[in-house]
Amino acid sequence: MARYLVIVESPAKVKTIKKFLGSNYVVTASNGHVRDLPKSQLGVDVEHDYEPKYITIRGKGDILAGLRKEVKKADKVYLATDPDREGEAISWHLSQALKLEGKKTYRISFNEITKNAVKASLKNAREIDMDLVDAQQARRILDRVVGYRISPLLWAKVKRGLSAGRVQSVALRIIADREEEINTFIPEEYWSLDAKLKVDGERKLLTAKFYGTDKKMTIHSKEELDEILKEVESAEYTVEEIKKSERTKKAPVPFTTSTLQQEASKALNFATAKTMRIAQQLYEGIDIKGNGTVGLITYLRTDSTRVSEEADANVRGYIAASYGEEYVAVSEGKGKDNNKNIQDAHEAIRPTDVSRSPAAVKDSLSRDQFRLYQLVWKRFVASRMQPARYETTSVRIAAGKYRFTVAASKIVFDGFRTVYTEAGEEKEENNVLMKGLDKSSRLTKADFDTKQHFTQPPAHYTEAALVKTLEELGIGRPSTYAPTISTIIARRYVAKENKNLYLTEIGEVVNHIMLQSFPSIVDVNFTANMESLLDGVAEGKVHWKTIIENFYPDLEAAVEKAEEEQEQVKIEDEVTDVICDQCGRNMVIKYGPHGRFLACPGFPECRNTKPYLEKIGVACPVCGKDVVIRKTKKGRKYYGCEDNPECEFMSWQKPSTKKCPRCGSYMVEKGSKLLCGDEKCGYVENMEKKEK
Fold it and tell me: Domain holding 339: CATH number?
C-alpha cells in the first residue's frame, strides 16, 4: 500500500486532519519554523548579493530527524503549512532541510480544517510558490537588517536591551505623535442648550436641542448663552417643519484579522495577542462532544472579506430556515476587496459550518473560546442578512429668530440586528415622538437645561485603534499587528493602562533617536510603500533582492552617521542628598527598565534601592509640600505630592507656580499655554518665554 506523508505546522492540527484521511496517510507536525537566520550574527551576506544564511533553529534537530525518517518511508510528501506567505516559506524551508529534491513533493493549502477542504487540497496539490517565499524572505531580511544595525546603536547611546524594528518603530512613532497632539491640545469652551417644552394635551415634556438660526451655531461662552436665553425666554414656540423619512443600516461584512481584533477588543476586552491565540485554537480544532476534533473557524490571518460560494449558500439557507426568507440578503454582502494588498486567495474569518451554532458547542469550549466563536458566528450570519430599516422623524421648532430640533426614530424591520450589533453601538430605542404633534400643536416653554462643556483632545490609542490605523495606513499585514504591539509593550516603550496605550520615558527617547537619525524608517509613507513592494514580489513583478539592494546602503550610511553624531543619552550616576539608610552613603540616580531609581553607590556590598522622586520646584496646591515626578506601575509619567499617600494630589500635566487669575486654582503647562487646573473654570493664557 502506498504511504503518503502530510506535514503541518502545528501539532494541534494533526489530530483534526488525521481523521479526514485514510490509513495510508501519516500526518505529522514541524512545530512552526525549522530554519531561520542565526541570532548571534546578522545572517545576511551584504558583500555577496545579500544572500541569507539559514541555520536549523535550536531544539528543532530532533523534530527534523523524525521527519527525515518519515520522508524515507513515504512515496509522496505533502507540505500542508498555513495558507499565507509565512506558511509558504515554512514549506520551502522544510523542503530544503529535509532535502526533498527528487522526492514526489507537493504543496497543499486550505483556508479551513474540514474534510471537504482538506480532500480538495489534495486534489489541487501544486508546487511551492517561490514568489510568495521570496516575499517572505525579503520581509524577514529587511526586518533583520533594521533590527541588527540600529539596535546596537540604541544600546550604545541609551541602554542595553532596547530594539528598533521596521514596523515597530513606525507604530511607536504613531503613538508618540498622538501623545504630542494630546499634550498640546487646548480645550475650547462650548455650551449646550435644551428647551423643555409642554405640548398641549400631553403630560410628558418634549426636549428640543438648540440648533441656531437658519445655520447651525455653536455657543462658545456663557455671555453668548445669556444673549440667546434673553431672546428665547419670552419667544413663542411653534412647530415649523416635520420631516419623515426612512433610513437603512447595512449589514456588516464578515471579519478580517484587523476587524476581528478591533471588535474583540471592544466587545470582549481582549488584547490583540489574546484574540489571535484563541482564534488559532478555534482554527486548529477543538474536541466537540460527539464529533471529535473539529476546526470551528476558517484561517485567522486574512485581509479579505470574500466568502466561498458553498459557505454563502449554506448561510443563506440557515437564515431562511431560522429567521424567515424575508431576512435573507438580496445580494452578497460586499467588502472592500478591491484593496490591492489582499494576500493570496484568502476568505474572511467565518465559521466552518454555520449550522454549528454557538449554543450547540458551548459545553465543549472554554469561556473565552465560546465568546470569540460566538462573535465570529454572529457577524458572519449577520453579513448575509437584510439591512435594518428605521422610520425617522425630525422636527424643527421656531423660537423667535432661533431654531430648536427634535429627532426620533423607530425600527420598522430589525434585519441583521436580530443576530448582531457592534460593541459600543448605541441601542436604537423606539424613541417615538408624541403622536399628537403636528404643525398646529401649541407649545409652551417649561424650562431650560444648560450645560458647559469643553472640547476633548484626541483619544489615546488603544490596541484596537492602533490596529485600525496601521491597516488604514498600509503598514504591516494581518500576521504582524499583534506581535508588533506585543513588542513595543514588552520593551516598555509603551505602557498599557485601562486599554489605553501611553508613551513611556524610554519610548520617548527611542522615538526621538529614530526620528533624528532614521527619518525614513519611521516615515509612514515609506513603510507603506515598502509593503507595496513586498506585494509586488509576491505577485512576481519585483525581484526580492532588488528591494534589499536599494534599501541597505542608505541604512548603512544612516547608521554610520548616527554613530558619529548622535549624542549619548546615558544618564550619569547623579549624586543626591538622599542618605542610604543601610550604609550612610549619598544615594545616586540610576536608570533601569522602568526609568530612574535611587541606588546605593556601594553596590554590590550594599544593594539598597529606593524610588527616585524628582522635584519640579512647585509647591503642592493641596498641602504645600514639593510636587515630584512619579510613574505608574507601567511606566507612565505623572505629577504628584511627595507626601503621597497622605496627600492625594496628582496631575497628568506639569503644574505651574502661577495661580489662575480668574479662580485662584493652580495652573498646568500644556504645549505653549497655561491652563487652569480646574476644568470648570477653563481659563487659558500663553506661557511666558522664561516659563517655557
Answer: 1.10.290.10
Neighbours of 357 (CB within 10 A): 17
Cα separation, 1 vs 33, whole angstroms: 31
Alpha carbon distance 275, 245 (integer Å)? 40
The label of the residue with cell 530527524 reads 65
Neighbours of 218 (CB within 10 A): 11
Residue 581 lies in a domain: no
Average pLDDT over residues 487-499: 88
Q: For residue range 511-551, what is the model confidence (pLDDT) as tens digits?
A: 998 998 899 899 999 999 999 999 999 999 999 999 999 99
Q: What are phi and psi of 356, to 5 degrees?
A: -85, 85
For residue 334, being part of any structural domain is answered with yes
- Do residue 420 and residue 531 come from a single domain? no
> Hey, CA dihedral for 223, 228, 231, 233, is it positive or negative?
negative
3-state SS track over 399-413: ECCEEEEEEEEEEEE
Give the residue-averaged pLDDT of 374-396: 95
> 143 and 114: one domain?
no
Range of the domain at 275: 257-383
pLDDT at 345: 55
- Same-domain status, 199 and 171: no
Q: Are 161 and 55 contained in the same domain?
A: no
What global pTM score does this model have? 0.81
CA distance 265 to 481: 13
Strand partners, 394: 243, 407
Q: What is the mean pLDDT of the chain?
A: 89
pLDDT of residue 112 exceeding 90, the answer is yes
Maximum separation of any 2 CA atoms in the chain, in Å:
98
Q: What band does 342 get if pLDDT is binned at 50, 70 and 90?
A: very low
103, 75 in Cβ contact below 8 A? no
3-state secondary structure of 370: helix
Q: 520 and 468 share a domain?
A: yes
Q: Other C-beta atoms within 10 Å of 50: how many?
A: 20
Pair (56, 110) in one structural domain: yes
Cβ count within 10 A of residue 622: 14
Determine contact, residues 66/58, Cβ cutoff 8 Å.
no
* Three cell numbers, residue 175: 503613538
Backbone angles phi, psi at 463, to 5 degrees: -60, -45
Query: In this structure, what DSSP letter does residue 124 have?
Result: T
Q: What residues contact residue 374 under an 8 Å CB cut-off, 6+ apart?
A: 358
Residue 172 lies in a domain: yes
What is the residue type of 446?
A
55 and 106 co-located in one domain: yes
Please tell me which residue in 54, 237, 299, 327 is annotated as part of the active site: 299
Q: How far is CA 528 from CA 168, 517, 524, in A?
A: 13, 20, 6
Q: For residue 614, name the pLDDT band (cuts at 50, 70, 90).
A: confident
Residues of the chain with pLDDT > 70: what percent? Answer: 93
Other beta carbons within 10 angstroms of residue 245's beta carbon come to 10
Please provide the distance, in angstroms rounded to a whole number, between the alpha carbons at the two ends of the chain: 83
Q: What Rg do the C-alpha atoms of the chain give, in angstroms?
A: 31
Contacts of 672 (CB under 8 A, 6+ apart): 184, 686, 687, 692
Report the alpha-carbon distance of residue 288 to residue 16 in Å, rounded.
Answer: 11
Domain count, the chain: 5
The reply to whether 638 belongs to the active site is: no
SS (H, E, C) 61-115: HHHHHHHHHHHHHCCEEEECCCCCHHHHHHHHHHHHHCCCCCCCEEECCCCCCCH
Same-domain check for residues 315 and 399: no
**Phi and psi angles of residue 369, each rounded to the nearest 5 degrees, phi first:** -60, -45
Q: Which three cell numbers stand for residue 107?
A: 504543496
d(CA 142, CA 170): 14
pLDDT tens profile 549-603: 999 999 999 999 988 887 776 545 678 888 998 999 999 877 665 556 889 988 8
